[in-house]
Each structure stands twice: as structure tokens, then as C-alpha cells.
Design goal:
The complex is a heterodimer.
Chain A: E1 2-7, H1 14-23, E2 27-32, E3 43-46, H2 66-76, E4 80-84, H3 86-94, E5 100-102, E6 110-118, E7 134-141, E8 145-147, H4 150-158, E9 162-167, E10 186-190, E11 196-199, H5 217-224
Parallel strand pairs in A: 1-2, 1-3, 3-4, 4-11
Antiparallel strand pairs in A: 5-8, 6-7, 6-9, 9-10, 10-11
Chain B: E1 2-9, H1 16-27, E2 39-45, H2 51-66, E3 72-78
Antiparallel strand pairs in B: 1-2, 1-3
Classes of the chains: A alpha/beta, B alpha+beta.
Chain lengths: 225, 79
Amino acid sequence: MRSSVIVFPGSNCDRDIAVALEKMQFKNQMVWHKETKLPKSDLIVLPGGFSYGDYLRSGAIAGKSLIIDEVIKEANAGCLILGICNGFQILTETGLLKGTLLRNKNLKFINKDVHVKVINNETKFSNKYKKNQILNINIAHNEGNYFTNSKHLDQLKKDNLIAFKYCNEDGKINESTNPNGSLESIAGIYNSKKNILGMMPHPERMVEEIVSNKDGINLFSSLLS
Amino acid sequence: MKFSVTVTLKKDVLDPQGKVVENTLMNMGMKDLRNIRQGKYFQIEVDENDQSLAEKKIDLMCKKLLVNLIIEDYKINKI
């Protein structure tokens, strides 16, 4: 499977995702944001980081970069797109995913391992997980507080487009298990065709037992299946 | 022609930064303070002599980049 990781000035998880993809035998290429052509890709990743120093709004400037027009074209043609953390913020700024990511409710940058529940395990990104499986996965963000209008929220629920929700280690979901104030504890969502996933947690940080755990591996092996 | 654009969070969107500023001012003794909403301010100059055309251009800038219409409102004023 061929993957492309888009690199913006200020991306800082691009190497991590490249290492994870290569470990999983993806044929990966790094693509600088000023490029106007994408290599043939089955998966395009918008990595985490602080593109353009989070100027204006997180992801706003990256969302207007040259390569993004190509990413939007590919996304509309059905290519798989994964946006992690700042990548999720960029996807909402481009309109490929609806809603937006507000400042964390407690106004603090949160960097810690949290638990998330797999809500939909029937997509190209999640089919190797069990339904309601609980993952221990790292988050590191200042704007992860997902917000959308009630009509879109209804659609997310009705069409099973919520990918992950924050929970505790027993899978309980309530205000105390929600680290950033995100609407309905949402940690990741799909578009209506389910070929685009945006998520705040970092699966690429959870692929080696020696540094963390392997809870992120199945996201990549799902893509390969 | 020169314009100002003020961007603020919509009424229903929580503004935690504004809240902290508000609480701090209250703690400093500004007891008459009712409410603070924090926003952004831009000064924009455009090469256009027709005011309504210039405003249309600024409006496009707001919609295309400066404002996130899901959570923010904006006001354009000539200065």
C-alpha cells in the first residue's frame, strides 16, 4: 500500500508517522506542502504538529496550502485520508470534515496517555479493532475540544460516523473521563463516505512496546486488510 | 482604502480565555464588570477606491480565511 505524508512548516509528528507506516510495510513518501502534485497514494496522512505556528487558528493556514487542493481532489475521488491531531484540525479547516476544534476546556495543553473507545469498527481504518475496544493512547494538544452544530452531531450518531470517544479504563464515558471538553467526548470522526478519519489521539506513537504500547498498530493493519 | 475586521466567538460558543480575563479583572476589584468576550482584530488595506467593492473583497477574505464561520462572527468597518 502506498502512502504519502504531507509535511508543513511546523509539522513535528511527520517522522513518527513515517516510521509507523514503514514498520507496517507501507511504501511511504514525504510530500512538502509546496508541491502541486501528489505521488500515487492509497493513503494520505496529514500529521500532527503546529503547522505555521498555529497562526490565525490551528490548521487554518495549512488548510490553504498548495498541496491541499490536490488532497481535496483525491479525498473526493475516494482516497483514504488520515488526519492526526493538527492533521484533524487541518481537515476541519479545509471542510473535508465538518465541525471544528476549540481550545481545551481547561485552557491547558494536555499531553498524556488517555483511554479511548472504538465506537465504529467497521471502516477501512478500524476493522482490526473490536467494537467498544478500549485503547490506551497518547494525546498532545491545546485545541482538541471538538464542536459541531446539532444537525451534524445527529448525523454523526445516526450514520455511525463517530470513530473514537474518550473514556476511562473501564470504558465509562462521562464528563470526568473527557480530557478536553469535547462534544459527547468525541476523539475522532469520519466523513459521510468514511474514507476520511480525523482524530486527536496519536496512533503512530503506540506502535512499539519498548516506547509505549501497541494499541495503535491495528489502525494501520486495518488499512492494509 | 482601510478597514478593520473584528472577529468574535458566536454567542453560544464557550470563550474560556475571555472568562479567565473576566475573572482576573473581577479579582482585581472591577466589580461592575458584567461580561467579557475575547476576539481578534485585523487592519486591512486594499487597492480599491469604490467602498462597496472594497467591502466585498474584505468580506471574501473573511469568509475564505480570516473567520471560522462555524464558531465566529465578524464585523467590517471602514477606518
